Amino acid sequence: MITDNEGQVLSSRHMEVHRRQPTLPPPSENQAYLGPILQLTIETTWINGKVSVIERPLTYTKRVQSTTDIAIVRATVDDVPAVLRLLDDAVKWLVSHDRTGQWGTSPFSENPKRAERLTEFATTGSGLWLAVKVADLPTVNGEAPVIIGALAVGDKMPYAPSVSEPELYVRLLVTDRRWAGNGIGTRLLEHARDLANEAGISLLRVDCYAGDDGKLIQYYESQGFGRSERLNLEGGWPCQVLAQRLDEVKGE
Ligand SMILES: CC(C)(COP(=O)(O)OP(=O)(O)OC[C@H]1O[C@@H](n2cnc3c(N)ncnc32)[C@H](O)[C@@H]1OP(=O)(O)O)[C@@H](O)C(=O)NCCC(=O)NCCS
User: Fold this and answer.
1) With 70 as the cut, is the pLDDT of residue 98 above it?
2) What domains are there in the chain, each with its CATH number?
3) Are 184 and 69 in contact (CB under 8 A)?
4) For bias kind Polar residues, which ranges apply (predicted)?
């Protein structure tokens, strides 16, 4: 059994490449130093109001996957209002930077179809996932954790061209603007790759707004995606589809 510096159990069984991990501090008596890149799956669950870390083969469904300070947890329909708030904040941020072409100027939450869509994300496909601070995870007093990012993955969007192999499609990615620069989006995309790997899927796709200076496209390129189709959606909305092969990023 291996534990991290906070005493959490890290399973070394059923290991696969999952994510880049910051270098751990030197080992103490009951810790093992695993080097700058860990290849492991960590799972935590709630037992009697406390976080318990459990060892599971990768084929098990994950409820919580945590690393040092951020956990990725599966959302339920109860989390939809909080995700809408994140999206409303993102619109405000975009507007404040004169980037109104992507999502307009009205709050996401104004349109009831958006909540329906998020509910669909939460209940179908590979689900809706949340980034939360581990420090904020519910404790015995039952406080709700603060949601600092959201990811939805599943089938491709209807307008995206079909592909001839199984794929996972990023349908939503948003992070709390107060946490910008902390790589929350990177963590959520890593989680999307994990989900694809576990399902034996080698292709991850996403699409994004392609207008203005193309900065969002550059963001996805910085995350390992490459440009594929350029589309003009309804209302002349410029859309860039991007793809990432997961069988070419082994041993990251
Ligand atoms: C895209 C996003 C999830 C990335 O989160 P992250 O990995 O934590 O990265 P950051 O928030 O630090 O953003 C990375 C860079 O992309 C830029 N960026 C993010 N969203 C952008 C957008 N919609 N349009 C243009 N630039 C954007 C940021 O300004 C930042 O640029 P900088 O490095 O020059 O400061 C997050 O920035 C976000 O929620 N953006 C608004 C919503 C959005 O556009 N989601 C994607 C829909 S396809």
Assistant:
1) yes
2) 70-245 (3.40.630.30)
3) no
4) 1-11
Q: Which residue, judged by its Cα, is nearest atom 33 of ligand 1?
A: 181
pLDDT in tens, 133-146: 876 555 434 566 78
pTM of this structure: 0.76
Structure-token pair, residue 19: 């994510």
Residues 6+ apart with CB under 8 A from 197: 16, 17, 18, 246
As a whole number of angstroms, the distance between CA 188 and CA 84 comes to 17
Answer positive or negative: Cα dihedral of 81, 84, 85, 88. negative
Helix (H) or strand (E) holding 70: strand 70-74
Give, for ligand 1, the residue of 97, 105, 118, 175 to mutate: max count of ligand atoms closer than 8 Å to Cβ.
175
